[in-house]
Design brief:
The chain is of the alpha/beta class and 325 residues long. The chain is built from 13 helices and 8 strands. Strands 1-2-4-3-5-6-7-8 form an 8-stranded mixed sheet, sandwiched between helices. Strand 7, helix 12 and strand 8 form a beta-alpha-beta unit. The longest helix is centred in the first third of the chain and has 23 residues.
Length: 325
């Protein structure tokens, strides 16, 4: 009986300790998110051999000369004798985990459609707090365009895209290059003019910080805590800037946006679409409903799903239209 009591007390103390740590520190959440995001290499498409035959890998793990940590990129390009539009792609992972290598299949598939695709890393939270990542995407674009001839890039045709947290980051870049009031809060010198940014690609992301907690996406509030340094982040200056929908103007670039019906961020996609349309911004949306398989978060990466292939086809149409000379 005595040992049972001791074991019970130890168990209670352990639970209380974990509860205290979890409530007042992000150490456990950070570790869990990074474990959750590690080793996810995506789904290899069935036509992968054809994809590889259509592209060249121009660079891997190359520094884009960021003043922050983890500023590296890979560059894939369709085989072509003429300069091609550039797609800068930011990976997901809550801003806390993930790595560009997990999205290689998808970025290579995009490149095979006739693009130069830069698959970038950025400094993760909480070491890199907002707006570090916004500044890093701008640094990456500056680096890429400084080597436009070597990479075969047409500087007049730039797209920025990403998934999940990377979609939020890409949506923020749309603001950075088109809304001077937003850019003044972030600081820095823009690497491109608004007319060079032909479009923004948003896969399964979040865009309204004020309603984000209500999505109940696992650990998402903790990730914003890590980004802002505030557990109750709503209303903080960082959260005000992170709230993309509040800063959209008619100058915002055209948008391709998708999200599956079993994704907790579906409501966020709908809010973003409504905000864009309210400002008269062109939107190409794809919000498919579940067929054979549940369309959960990041469905578009599973290129063996018919809905993911359809999303890629619709994105290709968007890119072709907006990327015309």
């Amino acid at each position: 009986m005595r040992w049972r009591m001791i074991l019970l007390l130890v168990s209670i103390l352990l639970v209380v300790s974990v509860w205290i740590v979890y409530g007042y520190s992000t150490v456990l959440q950070q570790a869990f998110i990074r474990l959750l995001c590690s080793g996810n290499m995506g789904v290899k498409p069935q036509d992968y051999d054809a994809v590889l035959a259509a592209i060249d890998t121009l660079d891997t793990d190359t520094s884009y000369e960021s003043r922050f940590d983890n500023g590296t990129l890979d560059v894939y390009a369709a085989k072509s004798g003429v300069p091609l539009p550039l797609i800068v792609y930011a990976h997901g992972g809550y801003y806390v985990g993930g790595d560009k290598r997990d999205f290689a299949y998808y970025c290579q598939s995009l490149a095979a459609r006739g693009y130069v695709v830069a698959n970038i890393n950025y400094q993760l939270a909480p070491e890199g707090r907002y707006p570090t990542q916004v500044l890093q995407v701008n640094e990456a674009i500056r680096f890429l365009l400084s080597r436009a001839e070597a990479y075969g890039i047409d500087p007049a045709r730039v797209f920025i895209g990403g998934d999940s947290a990377g979609a939020h980051l890409s949506a923020q870049m749309g603001l950075y290059y088109t809304n001077p009031d937003f850019r003044a809060r972030i600081c820095g010198e823009p690497a491109i003019a608004p007319e060079q940014l032909r479009g923004v690609i948003l896969h399964c992301g979040y865009y309204n910080i004020d309603t984000l907690r209500a999505t109940r996406f696992p650990l998402i509030a903790d990730s914003v805590w890590m980004m802002t340094g505030e557990k109750r982040y709503e209303g903080t200056e960082a959260a005000k800037s992170m709230n993309t929908v509040a800063w959209i103007t008619p100058a915002y670039p055209p948008v391709f946006i998708d999200c599956g019906d079993r994704d907790p961020f579906l409501s966020q996609a709908r809010e973003m679409i409504a905000a864009l349309r309210e400002q008269g911004v062109g939107v190409t949306s794809y919000l498919p409903t579940t067929g054979k398989f549940p369309l959960v978060h990041e469905f578009q990466l599973h290129l063996n799903l018919s809905e993911a292939r359809e999303a890629l086809e619709r994105l290709a149409g968007f890119l072709g239209e907006k990327g015309e000379r």
